[in-house]
Design brief:
Helices cover about 55% and strands about 5% of the residues. By secondary structure, the protein is mainly α. Strand 1 and strand 2 form a beta hairpin.
Length: about 140
């Protein structure tokens, strides 16, 4: 059975989205990642997260497949790329929670909502909220 990844709100050492990115890597390697996620692996929010950590996505994916907990892999990112401060994590989390809300991604969010039959759901104002509804964690 193909599955969607973890919620983007899942935290790793206080950082949201990171666990979702790792989950997508693991699911894809196992052949169980939902098809609509496969084309964008390493781009979009995955790419932004890797860039924010100053690691190459391909290096991160290789590290994930070596094994280890999400926390261990995030610590590897801190050692390989850059360590994030509490302020960095605050900025990342708050940026990501607002993507799609009256910004350059709003059009994409509208299109995705329509494609998913969620266009009437006015409470979905950000991409992270969209993920929750599209992937069945909220209804």
């Amino acid at each position: 059975m193909k599955t969607a990844p973890l919620s983007a709100y899942q935290e790793t050492l206080g950082m949201i989205y990171f666990a979702r990115m790792l989950d997508k890597i693991r699911l894809h390697a196992a052949g169980t990642l939902r098809e609509d996620f496969c084309d964008n692996l390493g781009s979009g929010f995955d790419g932004r997260c890797a860039d924010f950590l100053r690691v190459k996505y391909d290096d991160l994916a290789a590290r994930v497949l070596q094994g280890g907990s999400d926390e261990e892999i995030l610590k590897w990112c801190f050692e390989t790329g850059r360590e994030l401060t509490e302020g960095d994590i605050f900025i990342w989390n708050n940026y990501l929670k607002k993507v799609g809300w009256k910004d350059g991604v709003s059009e994409i969010l509208g299109r995705r909502k329509k494609e998913s039959g969620l266009e009437a759901r006015d409470e979905i104002e950000t991409m992270l909220e969209y993920f929750e509804y599209d992937e069945g964690r909220k209804s």
